[in-house]
Amino acid sequence: MLPIEFSSVARQSGVSHSLKDISFAAEQGSLTVILGPSGSGKTTLLRLAAGFESVTCGDILMAGKSVAGLAPKDRNIGMLAQKPGLYPDKSVYDNLAFGLRLRKIPAAHIRERIHRTAADLQLHDVLACRPCTLLPVQRLRAAIGRALIHRPAVLLCDEILSETAAGSREQLRYELRLVHEKSRVTTLYATHDPVDALALADQLIILREGRIVQSGSPEEIHESPADAFVAGFVGTRPINLLPGRIDGDGERGLRVGEQRIPLHAGSLAAAGQEVLLGIRPHDILLHEEGPFRGTVNGIEYAGSHSVIRLRFAHQEITLVTRSSVDCSPGDVLAFKLDVGKLHLFDRHSERRIRQL
Q1: What is the dihedral of CA 233, 234, 235, 237, to 10 degrees?
Q2: For residue 83, what are the domain limits?
Q3: Shared domain check, 115 and 258
Q4: Average pLDDT estimate for 22-30
Q5: Considering only CA atoms, which of 165, 169, 115, 168 is closest in space to residue 145?
Q6: Contact, 256 vs 246, CB < 8 A?
Q7: Dihedral sign, Cα of residue 314, residue 315, residue 320, residue 324
Q8: What is the phi-psi region of residue 106: left when phi exceeds 0, alpha when psi lies from -120 to 50, beta otherwise?
Q9: pLDDT tens digit sequence for 193-232
Q10: Does 353 reside within a domain?
Q11: 350: Cβ contacts below 8 Å, ≥ 6 apart
Q12: Using CA of residue 188, residue 189, residue 194, residue 200, what is the dihedral sign?
């Protein structure tokens, strides 16, 4: 049985829909990331799963049974919100014990669960501490422990790293993945951050305006985005999107401004079709004998790599190179494109144009 499944779920508020025709399932022990911009319906989806809001139509199943009408306390779900749900006036031990005491679990069993959870999450040394004295990673572990200690079937996480300082975010992401690998609790994790999504997800669900626009593994979505929105939203850096037209004269190619770019042999783009060409920054390769030229608008040195902004075909494009580049604004650089990594989208529908 699947731990949780959404079947044609919609949520309507007044005359508008915050979610429309949501269907997906999470495998046992998986981490499913719900990724989308602000207002796309991520939090609403989690609130429906938790029972804080009711579906307008469709159904949510847990272990094969509908949870329609079940109160939140009866759904065996744990939840983590943007700010860790820790009581500031209680120790870590008492925070972990709080929900178990409400359930009238015997004190000896509470102690056993807390010490087991503390061992799993490396909290033994801070059980007597209050949350305000903890490091960010310790607060995250304590909040996760509080959500997991009652052994939920599904864990819901809503933007739990959104207020984390940039310096500690990568470490907290790593900790979160470690905790998940150890607990194997089926998790739905909502975020607007594509870097978090790519790093954490087993399954990735992309939401836009209340609808699922693509789902699959992080690799599938990054390498084969369903439309220009997904291509621009999913990635460590925004994709370059250039308008062009398919040239049907002789060997087919793509006209972008005055430039002609060869097409992948299996492209199903039609001659004369207006398209958007998607090129990720790391698929633009500096090369002395490259067929294309661009004028440097700016360069950012970032230690392990450099980010260069070029004027090309009357537009600005961004490329990332691992090597240090000796150039200044106004210089002309030669480059080539990894033709096998180009993405084509219909300019009007913005849907991906398939290739054989």
Answers
A1: 0
A2: 4-233
A3: no
A4: 97
A5: 115
A6: no
A7: positive
A8: beta
A9: 999 999 999 999 999 999 999 999 999 999 999 999 999 9
A10: no
A11: 227, 228, 229, 276
A12: negative
pLDDT grade, residue 331 (50/70/90)?
A: very high
The tokens describing 8, both together, are 């044609």
Could you tell me which residues come within 8 angstroms of residue 108 by beta carbon, excluding any fewer than 6 positions away? none
Q: For residue 227, what are the contacts with CB-CB under 8 A and spacing of at least 6?
A: 213, 214, 345, 349, 350, 351, 352
Q: Is 352 part of any domain?
A: no
Q: What torsion do the CA atoms of 240, 246, 247, 252 make, to the nearest 10 degrees?
A: 90
Alpha carbon separation from 236 to 197, 222, 282 (Å, rounded):
10, 10, 10
Return the structure tokens found at 75. Answer: 């759904």
Pair 246, 342 in one domain: yes
For the chain, what's the residue count? 356
Q: Are 222 and 232 in contact (CB under 8 A)?
A: no
Domain count, the chain: 2
Contact 155, 79 (CB under 8 A): yes
Residues β-bridged to residue 344: 277
Task: Say if CB 225 and CB 213 are below 8 A apart.
Answer: no
The domain spanning residue 297 has which CATH number? 2.40.50.140
Regarding whether 254 and 109 lie in a shared domain, the answer is no
CA distance 83 to 17: 27
Q: Tally the C-alpha atoms within 13 A of residue 211's C-alpha that lie toward its C-beta.
A: 5
Q: What per-residue confidence (pLDDT) applies to 128?
A: 95
- The amino acid at 1: M
Mean pLDDT over all residues of the chain? 91
- Answer for the pair 326, 343: CB distance below 8 angstroms, yes or no: no
Count CB neighbours of 334 within 10 A: 13
Above 60 in pLDDT, residue 250? no
Structure tokens at 32: 């499913």
**Residues 265-301: b if buried by 16+ CB within 10 A, e if exposed:** eebebeeebebbbbbbbbbbebeeeeebebebeebee
Torsion of CA 343, 344, 349, 354, to 10 degrees: -90
